[in-house]
Amino acid sequence: MDAERQIQNLKDRLTYIRDIFGSKEDDSIRLLAARLGEVLEREEMTPGRVTVEELSRLEDLFDFSERKLDASLSPMDRVRIVRHPQRICLKDILENVYDNYTELGGRGEFNIDPSMLIARAYFSRRVGEKFVKQMVMVIGQEKGHGESFRNGGSVKPWGNAKALHYMKVAETENIPVHTFVFTPGAYPVEDWPGAAQQIARNLYEMAALRAPVISVFSEGGSGGAEAVGLGDRRIMLSHGYYSVISPEGAAAIEGGLHTGIRATPELIEKCAERLCITAGDNLRNGYVDRVLQEPPLGARPNHYDFFRELRRELIQATNEAVSEVKSMKLFRAMAIRASRSDDAESIFMRWNLSSSALSRLVELRQRKYRAMSRHARLDGTGLVKRAVAGAKGAVDATHSFLRYDVLGKQKKRLDAMFEELGAEAHLVRHKLLMPFKRSMDKLLSGTVSEQGRKDIQVHEELTRLSCPEDGACLSGSEWTWISPRSQEDKTVSCPNVRTHHCPDLWAPDLFGDFAGVCPNCGHHFPMEYRWYLENVFSFRESREFNQQIESINPLHYEQFDLKLDKAKDKTRLKSACITFETAIEGVEAVVAVLCAPFRGGSVGAAEGEKFIRAAERAGRKRQPFIAYVHGTAGIRIQEGVNGVIQMPRCTIAVRRYIDAGGLYLVLYDTNSYAGPVASFLGCSPYQFAVQSSNIGFAGPGVIAETTGMPVAPDYHRAYHALSRGHIHGIWDRREVRKNLHQSLLTMGGRNLYYR
């Protein structure tokens, strides 16, 4: 019976090896197949003839060959390892790493979302003569071992909402959070609460979550990974991958393939290598803190030594995160820093933190992400200009502190006191003089002076509704900047001509006076970002900053340098982001614009850095921060994780700005999809869209390819985003400046002193 089990185990191992390497048969695999074939043939002819010693030698040969094959793994081989049904899953980790656990939010198929698993677990530690239970909240995607209801670890919006709920529970209970990333990507549906919107909420809350967060990466697919991956310590399994997109997705984009057409294996292998997705790549780039070595060809459920190593690594990482912020560190903190993970269980440290320690924890987390991806952008600003900019920033911060925090607080107190006294005096005066005023009104009734008539007229003008006859009050037709399409001598048909019977429009009228809006049905034709820069933000009178930060090719992605140069020549921009200071009807604001003509408005390290600096500038100067999205295709895939990491980085910058009392307002236009919408744009409490814009997590083609569901033509329209609460209003293009000004006067945080 033991021999049968050994033979079956060897057959499973050979099948696993062939699954990993696919059609790539080398000498080691052929040798293993031949030797195992001989054993199976003899066993079939004469059962019991194969000896235990012979099977042991064959197992040793398998061990040697697996180590040899492991050294030659390509990035795509590692992708196949983490996708294999025999790969360890979160349930295996709960069973073998923690001493006890209780699953929360349902079990198995009867769950809010079976792809997201939540458990309350603990480590049992011996301290002297006592045993102590150290509680943690375990959160992660559950792929399972081929269970279809797990959806391959692709989490729906409500699964991420469940994860966020229990993160907040852990924050309340003052226990650490251990997150496990086992996902090819989030499930791209916009059903409430919406994939993009929920990932943005998770990132926003994790940016300032007052609990230690330890993240373990096995398969990290873009935004789905970031939904639970923003941690104080990030551990990556040696055979895992962490990427902006799957190699197959990158190959489809590179090859320009249509839906249903698959890329060649050679192109997929090439893209997997270009994207720098392995644990070693991410460690070198600084996006994970350490790599945990797995057994040859990846960890599987029977690798119990690996589970012991993972347990020690989790305890060590949690100890490090906690000891770094504790006020009384003494010798244990030094011992933790000096120790290896195999010594972790010998050092005990309480994991609950004081309020001040939690504040330090959040500050260190935010500073850690702020320092990332410096190598992935080019800053052409000279040393002198940097020094001047730094000095000016310090002056601005000091000026704001003195004006608003020191003098401003005293002024507010005095203003409040005088307002209260004035209100009391007004009431007394009103009560004393009202009888005398009524008597005088009776004597003078019927005789209205010229001055009185003027006063009545002024009162009516101030109190009546504006434009009562014409409906909405649109701005005049004299725009500062006119689209070049207004020079075309032709007529344009409105797409709604069949339903609204719109007449043909002459291009000079449509793209000139009408600002690209059909006067009959209100359909918005696409308009250049320059139209908004000049007519909404008065760009010519603004002060642009950080224009020397430039997009580069950090992964040396093949032919991407040429594509970047072409985009720079065409748009005369150095990145897809423009940042500047402007005034909207006298209200000064900081603006960041994502420009669709530059690589689809995709976000990389340069764009992320410019966005962060704009948020920091708005915070220093106590000004509103406006993000206008002329269009974004998402995270720039050619920058790999250098692009993905901008999701948590920019979200942290926004969180710091909002927590400091600023007003952050986002306006979407044309097509806005993927990572930026699922992070630093989607986390704004004030989001608006221009009519006819499209907003979502993934485009129609990606949704159809991923889910197999048909996508309605209007699935991503702004009105659907409004109905599910993603955005909070839809604006006519001609009224954007007026609506922005109104928003600046009526919305926002406590540090907007212009009011």
Count the beta strands: 22
> What is the strand arrangement across the widest sheet?
1-4-5-6-7-8-9
Specify Rg, calculated over alpha carbons.
31 Å
Low-confidence stretches: 467-476
The number of distinct structural domains comes to 4
Tell me which oligomeric state these chains represent.
single chain
Give the C-level CATH assignment of the largest domain. Answer: Alpha Beta
Portion of residues within helices? 40-55%
Morphology call: globular
The mean pLDDT is 85
Number of helices: 27
N-to-C CA distance: 83 Å
Write a brief structural summary.
The protein has 755 residues and is α/β, with parallel strands linked by helices.
What features would you describe in this structure?
- The chain is an alpha/beta fold and 755 residues long.
- It has four domains: 2-72; 86-245 and 277-370, 2-enoyl-CoA Hydratase, Chain A, domain 1 (Alpha-Beta Complex), CATH 3.90.226; 484-523, no CATH class; 529-746, 2-enoyl-CoA Hydratase, Chain A, domain 1, CATH 3.90.226.10.
- It has 27 helices and 22 strands.
- Strand 4 (116-127) and strand 5 (130-141) form a beta hairpin.
- Helix 7 (195-206) packs parallel to helix 8 (222-229) and helix 21 (605-621) runs parallel beside helix 23 (646-659).
- Residues 467-476 have low confidence and may be disordered.
Topology:
Layout: H1 2-21, H2 27-45, H3 52-70, H4 75-83, H5 90-96, E1 100-104, E2 106-107, E3 110-111, E4 116-127, E5 130-141, H6 157-173, E6 177-183, H7 195-206, E7 213-221, H8 222-229, E8 233-243, H9 247-255, H10 265-274, H11 279-285, E9 290-292, H12 304-323, H13 330-338, H14 355-370, E10 377-379, H15 383-444, H16 450-463, E11 491-492, H17 497-500, E12 505-506, H18 507-513, H19 529-535, E13 543-544, E14 549-551, H20 560-571, E15 577-584, E16 587-594, H21 605-621, E17 625-629, H22 641-644, H23 646-659, E18 664-668, E19 671-673, H24 674-677, E20 686-690, E21 694-696, H25 700-707, H26 718-723, E22 730-731, H27 736-746
Parallel strand pairs: 5-6, 6-7, 7-8, 8-9, 16-17, 17-18, 18-20, 19-21, 20-22
Antiparallel strand pairs: 1-4, 2-3, 4-5, 10-14, 11-12, 13-15, 15-16
